[in-house]
Please model this.
Amino acid sequence: MPAGALLVLADVNYPGWRAWVDGRPADVVTANYVLRGVPLPEGARSVQFAFLPGSFTVGLFAALAALSVLAGLGSAVLAGRRHA
Model:
């Protein structure tokens, strides 16, 4: 590109999108009220996107907590059977 531009993708800018331009973190902006965009400086650029919503992290921790509780209950049941 001979000048800076705004790369606009035809999907909704939902919270959780992250972008990197040439390997460096970049701002993801809302374009045309709902679309996802990234400002780009002039020149040839490499752009990467990743969807990392906060709800995924919360769900991951909840699942790990549930697994640890189940593992604890399972070991308690097994320990009870050994003493019986």
